[in-house]
What we know:
- By secondary structure, the chain is of the alpha/beta class.
- Helix content is 35%, strand content 13%.
- It has helices spanning 22-35, 79-90, 109-112, 126-135, 163-173, 215-229, 238-245, 249-256, 260-265, 268-278, and strands at 8-10, 40-43, 54-57, 72-74, 96-98, 155-158, 178-185, 200-207.
- α1 (22-35) packs across α2.
Amino acid sequence: MLQGVDLILVDLQDAGARYYTYLATTVEVMRAAGERAIPVAILDRPNPIGGAVQGNVLDPAYATMVGRIAVPMRHGLTMAELARLAAADLGLRSPGAVPLAGWRRHQTLDATGLPFVPPSPNLRSLEALFHYPGLCLFEGTALSVGRGSDAPFEQLGAPWLDTAAVLRRLRAAVLPGVRFHSVSFTPRAPGDGRFADTVLAGIRLAVTDRATYDPTRTAVHLLAAIQAVHAARIGWIPRHFDRLAGGPGLREALERGTPPDSIVSAWAPAVARFERRVAGLRLYPE
């Protein structure tokens, strides 16, 4: 298939979260190109949700298409930086990069003046991208993440969800940068097949301060609240949840009833090691 190819250009918009599969696809391109000594160059694009780093770091033993290398849930890198890191971690030929002009790591997509183009049918807004590093974890449970609704990855729900009880727990946690309110929504032809044409009780999230919002911490509090209220119905899908969470540790801690902030604080040493590991691979200033 690659016979006669002199150069492969990769032009893909990452979503800013570990679960997004474009990096895994790029890694396979780099691997196939390397076997034939074909150079690869990344046409870089901004990280749409900026350079903040949040969440746990994937255990390499759980590397899959939804988590190819050991990065946090919200990695804060661009596609070219991710590809350079993947090359270093996996022993591949490092790709070239056509870097961005004038982008700084703290800038979100709407600060650049560039238009928003949905990277996938279920990531329809920049708001959804900010929630995605956290709410994507719910795809490993029985709840809907809003696929087939007007706001996928901005809300979650189930027919049995006691939103009042869950919201009481969330509001007691005083999570910064986000507000919650109860909603109802009806998935129409959802791609995940969950609760099609069924009215769901839901919780909608809205970012109020991007600088303080941590979608991964928020998701852990949400998961803990739903586990506490609906232990028999949360419906863990262990294999899929653990793939998304980068290992079984998060699910097992939640099932034990470990306080959410104790779970999140335990991630700090691995995140600090990640920050040191990528310092020399970053292409853009703060």
